[in-house]
Amino acid sequence: MSSNAARTLTFNVFRHNPRDSATPPRVVAYSLEETPGMTLFIALTRIRETLDPSLSFDFVCRAGVCGSCAMVVNGRPGLACRTLTAQLPAEIRLFPLPGFELIADLSVNTGKWMRGMSERLQAWLHMQEEPDVDALEARMEPAMAEAIYELDRCIECGCCISGCGTAQMRTDFVGAVGMNKIARFRLDPRDARDDADFFDLVGDDTGVFGCMSLLGCHDVCPKQLPLQTQIAYLRRGMARQGLLG
Amino acid sequence: MIPASEKPGPWPARLDLLQSVSGLFLGLFMWLHMLFVSSILLGEEAMWTVARFFEGYFFFGYGLPWLVSLFVAGVFGLFVLHAWLALRKFPAQWRQHRVYWTHMRSLRHEDTTLWFVQVITGFGMFFLAPVHLYLMMTHPELIGPYESADRVWSGMMWPLYLVLLFLVELHGGIGLYRLAVKWGNFSDPASARRKLKRLKWAFTVFFLALGLVTLAAYIKLGIEHAPHVGEPYMPLSSRAAP
């Protein structure tokens, strides 16, 4: 680390608890001395421990795996645990992800939204027959397994929904997370559904044809998922299905 | 299972494709159109030749202006179709306007901002483009070096053309870029997008510059020709020998 004097960071944090009428929506400033290797997770924990125990925010894994700490950092959705304060100016604005139900302060209910989306898109493996748990699994080419795993890396953090102008304007839009799920099951040879089935799920303006290619999702995804490629691929497939049946 | 009444059917797919295809045609046509119009920079005879070429003058030996009317009518139809399809994407309610504006200002993300530029330029074209299209459809014979220059200057069309130039070049350039990232299959999407973005800006700057110089040329010609406003251009071939 450099020997420069540590910066004093100012965190302007959105505060509001919708279930408590005594807490109107407001921004509260907290000052904190920066320490080496400080992430937003560390900073928020320190604020809660030393300055304001009432501050609400979500964390589980602290390693960019669980997706619960997504928030809007200086206007851009991202994972707090993976954001180093060293990469940010001394003035830091923290807001909850828009597009999701606010629990309190920086904590939003992404789970409720994700569950609704998953149920609507039937985002689970539809197998032809009940799997025989005693039999060996069918083999899969490593390249195919890799490709499916690549899309399965989605942690449902909600950044793509908050980074998408379309999803912000149209609350029934499934967003990149939804289209990525369809792309993932479309790829999977174990899934018995074909394009006609997937078309029924995303072949309209709440699905892939609602996407306006703003690519905010692609640019803010903390897992660097290939969303531009996947959405274009899905769009071509669904257009073919819609035109030719 | 999804009940049949909730299945999307083929129309959302068709409309999405139609929006893209009509936009692709209109965007590419506007680039060609600018090249044709800028023929005035090569001289009055060059512009006259281009204008008469599209009337079939060099096939039939005489011009058929209704060919141009027919083509303009087709472009007009496509323009209306594209406008209708694109309207589906516009923010309609106040909540949507507010949400998009807040989102755009907070995210500071180029492609998100460019979409809003498309909304504004598209909205502007609803009103300005039909003026020009109707004139061209009803008076295709008035496309010529003096005829056009008179329309630009004495006909007071230059303010409209000046604004329209920016609307068209911004909207079309962004739209064609968006089509590429919307449908394109790239092995390296990040670098492809960077290159496309650079190409898009290069085209926009080139056509804006060409458009401004061309408009200036028509204005200059229009001012010079103002004393004889309404007199058509006579090609070299038909000027009587002394």
Poorly predicted runs of 5 or more residues of chain B: none
In order across it, which strands form the biggest sheet of chain A?
2-1-5-3-4
Shape of chain B: elongated
Number of helices of chain A: 9
How would you explain this protein's 3D organization?
The complex is a heterodimer of chains A (245) and B (242). Chain A is built from 9 helices and 7 strands. Chain A has helices at residues 40-51, 110-121, 142-152, 159-162, 165-169, 175-187, 195-202, 216-220, 227-244; strands at residues 8-15, 26-33, 70-73, 76-79, 91-95, 101-104, 107-109. In chain A, the strands form 2 sheets. In chain A, strands 2-1-5-3-4 form a 5-stranded mixed β-sheet. In chain A, strands 6-7 form a two-stranded antiparallel sheet. In chain A, 40% of the residues are buried. Chain B has 242 residues and is mainly alpha-helical. Chain B has 9 helices and no strands. Chain B starts with 10 loop residues before the first helix and ends in a 17-residue tail after the last helix. At the A-B interface, α5, α7, α8 and α9 of A face α1, α5, α6 and α8 of B.
